[in-house]
UniProtKB/TrEMBL annotation:
This is DNA-binding response OmpR family regulator. Coiled coil: none annotated. Keywords: DNA-binding, Phosphoprotein, Transcription, Transcription regulation. One of its GO terms (molecular function) is DNA binding. It holds the Pfam family Response_reg. PANTHER family: RESPONSE REGULATORY DOMAIN-CONTAINING PROTEIN, STRESS RESPONSE REGULATOR PROTEIN 1. Residues 6-123 form the Response regulatory domain. InterPro entries: Bact_response_regulator, CheY-like_superfamily, Sig_transdc_resp-reg_receiver. SMART domains: REC (SM00448).
Length: 150
């Protein structure tokens, strides 16, 4: 197993899923998994720790917002950085996603420089806290050397 953190991509469109995995590999992330629905993604997240989730917004049966809410409600998963993707966002989408705990948004198709900037933004955010702070384990400290110092 490599030293680079694992990334989970969730998109119900198989071609886009493969494209995002390829883009992440090109950015220097060799350990990238992809699934085509949020239910499977949640199962994977409960089996393995991921340093980042990149999820489509518009999916069935569970959309990206419902998936995000499940992650943020789970103490073991709540600090997983989450990047939401979609072909277009309106103000309501962005507002709902922000309230649900999305760390960033990116429009499809991805521009490599925008994707890299969003990754840095998401990785640098402070860990979330519940009303009663959890053990130190809840704070993620992840090093992505391929993105350089930030």
């Amino acid at each position: 197993m490599s030293d680079t953190p694992a990334i989970l991509i969730v998109d119900d469109q198989e071609k886009l899923l493969k494209l995002v995995i390829l883009l992440m590999n090109r950015l220097g992330f060799p350990d990238v998994e992809g699934v085509t629905d949020a239910v499977t993604a949640l199962e994977r997240m409960r089996e393995r720790r991921y340093a980042l989730v990149i999820s489509d917004l518009d999916m069935e049966p569970m959309d990206g917002l419902a998936f995000l809410r499940e992650i943020r409600a789970d103490d073991a998963l709540m600090n997983t950085p989450f990047l939401l993707t979609e072909a277009s966002f309106d103000f309501e989408d962005i507002n709902l996603a922000h309230q649900a705990g999305a760390d960033a948004f990116i429009l499809k198709p991805f521009d490599m420089s925008v994707l890299k900037a969003k990754l840095k933004q998401v990785i640098n955010r402070k860990p979330r806290r519940r009303e009663a702070p959890l053990a130190a384990e809840s704070a993620l400290s992840i090093d992505f050397p391929m993105l350089g110092k930030f």
